[in-house]
Amino acid sequence: MSMINREIDDFSVQAFCQDEFATVTKDDVLGHWSVFFFYPADFTFVCPTELEDLAALYDQFKAADCEIYSVSCDTHFAHKAWHDASENIKNLPYPMLADPTHKLADIFDVYIEDEGVAERGSFIVNPEGRIVCYEVNAGNIGRNAAELLRRVQASQFVAEHGDSVCPARWVPGSEVLHPGIDLVGKL
User: Is residue 86 within 8 Å of residue 78, measured between CB atoms?
Assistant: First the structure.
């Protein structure tokens, strides 16, 4: 079943961000765009490459009024330990959400019960708390932060311009389609 336009459930989880522990709730994600970026586990191989890729574009996500929330089923203490032990993770600017009870992984339907980890899922959530775009990859396939940013920007564009749609490879400033108008012009 599709998760598009599904409102995320209430939640409250611990997080680690920039040398501090904090609590993040659903209320914290309302009012701005969000990306929930699930990964299987701390201290792994593909995950740090993805988290670094997101960090490299974090300023562009923030300029688009979008917060990144990386999420694994590890504890916030494990996130801190990984941060302290890894040069790749040490400078992450966004919150690392802890989900040891897999509440968030269940909400987003990415929990692998037999393994106790989350699938590699990316979810774009609008300011009203609704999922507008998502993808789930096999655990051995890394994601591209630039493509995720493009999909955030396209989601924002169509939210603001309901009569326009973004074609393949759309980027901000490129042409869009107007289904009613463009179709009539081609008849």
Answer: no
Domains in the chain, CATH or no CATH each: 12-143 (3.40.30.10)
3-state secondary structure of 81: helix
Instruction: Report pLDDT for 181.
Output: 63
Q: How far is 1 from 55, CA to CA, in rounded Å? A: 31
Amino acid letter, 182: D
Distance in angstroms (rounded) separating the CA atoms of residues 103 and 75 = 12
**Do the strands 33-38 and 66-72 form a parallel or antiparallel pair, or are they unpaired?**
parallel
**CA dist., res. 117 & res. 63, Å (int):** 31
Helix (H, G, I), strand (E, B) or coil at 16: strand
**Is 73 a known active-site residue?**
no
The pLDDT of residue 41: 96
Q: What is the mean pLDDT of each run of 10 residues along the chain (187 residues)?
A: 94 96 98 97 93 97 98 97 94 97 97 96 98 93 95 95 85 83 45
**Residue 175 in tokens:** 């042409």
Among 47, 66, 73, 166, the one annotated catalytic: 47
pLDDT score at 97: 98
Q: Which long-range contacts (CB under 8 A, 24 or more apart) does 81-85 make?
A: 81/42, 82/42, 82/43, 83/16, 83/19, 85/43
